[in-house]
Design brief:
By secondary structure, this protein is α+β, with helices and mostly antiparallel strands. It has 4 domains: 62 residues; 100 residues, no CATH class; 150 residues, no CATH class; 68 residues. The protein is built from 18 helices and 6 strands. α16 packs across α17 and α17 packs across α18. It holds the Pfam family DUF3435.
């Protein structure tokens, strides 16, 4: 068969005897994530995608009895050891994991630049200009309360749920009460971003919002968006100098989430599914299965039972058998990511390993190709080779760091046993750079103290937090000024000077 041959319209449907060797070819030519080859589940999913896909391309349908037998063969009858029936262990990202991660995010030095303004609602790259969380998907309501002029409640319309292809159809909505605990005061972040985007109708500062009162005779008052901001994406890509109009992508979110967890001393990374499983486990105890499926943005409640259960049961079997009160703390430990947290976990490779990485044969070969391209190649060729080297080095660095962390954790755990846990490990907190930033960015310093504390926020505290978040998101970092040294109306703040800073 010619190398450039392509299957097209009218190509005859293969028989079952032809499909089996094709599936074997797929398995033998594909690198798996959990094993050297794809697992039974991933192979079955490939077969289930191929069958309807073949019909879409050729117009000829593979007989249903052949497809059914093919699926059965992959799932049950293929027993020669080529593929393994294994699945990835599922853990839950617990509240304690979230708090630990967020505190580290605010307090510790940042080893990377966050590319997102909010870490959620991230579509695939191909949909980043059309999907994503937008202001029109959120309603903010000020609600009357006893101990303050109002408290914040908001609703998120989950437009992009699975199987919902109509962007104007808000299939599910979730009401959220904002919390007094700083880590869970999400509405304050939302208000700060909205102020930065000039998205709120009639408000240009946090002070404007906090001056608002609910009219007599009403218990709620809804805030409105400016028309021009309704379609503006909130979860946007950012660089050091530019905030894009495009949404952050799933790949970018996952990569940044991995880095955030690594910075919080986790040597195993969670996914958004781990967050959803933890949420599902909690609400499943209090609400119906249909309501759980709604919260997890699925049309069908069966999906929750199939895909959102951790691999460790939460049932306390022995205490239940003995008639004692169930204790789920042990199950929470085995289900959660706390077991994969080791204080002091290195987040960067040591110098000797970093130097060794530079002499990797693959990178050195690319360097030789770059030298050849510089001598007789085009600028485009050089750029592609440099990009290839950067991506290859990034992949190698990630793998080598993971290997180093595994070795470090093993040695640390052995040390705990040998010392009988009576000695505290020597841990150097990575906060030097963050403390320096706090000196020149007072708003960051205040936020670090707030976000690392469980002390409830008062009504006035929330005003200050919103102001600081707004200042942080709009700060011009081209020039860094010391406190009280920032220009006033473009001029030197010193009363005896007043010279234009631009001169």
């Amino acid at each position: 068969m010619p190398e450039d041959f392509q299957v097209g319209q009218g190509y005859p449907a293969p028989s079952l005897e032809e499909l089996k060797p094709f599936i074997r070819f797929y398995v033998n030519s594909t690198k798996g994530k959990l094993d050297d080859k794809p697992t039974v589940r991933s192979t079955l999913l490939f077969a289930q995608r191929f069958v309807p896909g073949f019909y879409e391309v050729t117009g000829n349908e593979i007989p249903s009895n052949d497809s059914r037998d093919l699926y059965s063969w992959v799932e049950r009858d293929w027993v020669d050891g080529t593929i393994k029936d294994i699945t990835q262990e599922k853990y839950n990202f617990m509240v304690a994991d979230f708090k630990r991660t967020m505190v580290a995010f605010w307090v510790r030095d940042d080893p990377f630049f966050m590319r997102a303004r909010i870490g959620a609602y991230a579509p695939l790259a191909k949909d980043k200009f059309t999907k994503g969380l937008r202001y029109k998907h959120i309603q903010i309501v000020l609600c009357r309360t006893m101990n303050a002029p109002w408290k914040i409640g908001w609703r998120v319309d989950q437009t992009w749920v699975k199987n919902n292809r109509d962007a104007e159809y808000h299939l599910f909505g979730i009401p959220i009460w904002d919390q007094d605990t700083p880590t869970f005061a999400g509405a304050l972040h939302l208000l700060a971003l909205a102020l930065s985007d000039n998205a709120l109708l009639g408000y240009s500062s946090a002070d404007d919002i906090w001056e608002q009162r609910i009219p007599p005779g009403q218990n709620e008052m809804e805030l409105k968006w400016n028309k021009k901001a309704e379609d503006l994406c909130i979860v946007r890509e950012t660089t050091a100098t530019v905030v894009s109009e495009a949404s952050i992508t799933t790949r970018q979110f996952n990569e940044d989430f991995r880095r955030v967890m690594n910075n919080a001393d986790y040597f195993k990374t969670a996914t958004i599914h781990a967050v959803r499983r933890a949420l599902g486990a909690v609400v499943d105890e209090k609400y119906s299965r249909a309501q759980v499926a709604q919260v997890l943005t699925h049309k069908t409640q069966e999906i929750y039972g199939q895909d959102y259960v951790a691999h460790i049961t939460r049932v306390d079997t022995v205490n239940s058998l003995l008639g004692n009160k169930p204790d789920t703390t042990l199950a929470d430990y085995f289900q959660g990511f706390g077991q994969f947290n080791e204080r002091g976990l290195p987040s960067e490779l040591p110098a000797e390993r970093l130097i060794k990485l530079q002499y990797d044969p693959t990178l050195m070969e690319i360097d030789r190709e770059i030298e050849v391209a510089k001598a007789c190649g085009s600028a485009k060729e050089i750029k592609n080779l440099e990009k290839r080297k950067k991506n290859e080095r990034k992949k190698m660095y990630t793998a080598e760091l993971k290997k180093f962390q595994v070795e470090w954790v093993q040695k640390r755990q052995e040390w705990k046993i040998l010392t009988r846990g009576k000695l505290s490990p020597d841990v150097t907190e990575r906060t030097t750079k963050k403390r320096a930033l706090c000196n020149v960015m007072p708003e960051l310093g205040r936020l670090v103290k707030r976000m690392s504390s469980d002390k409830p926020l008062t009504f006035d505290d929330k005003l200050q937090v919103t102001k600081d978040l707004h200042a942080l998101s709009t700060r011009d970092d081209d020039v860094v000024y010391l406190p009280l040294g920032e220009p006033v109306d473009g001029c030197c703040p010193a009363s005896t000077c007043g010279a234009s800073i631009d001169q």
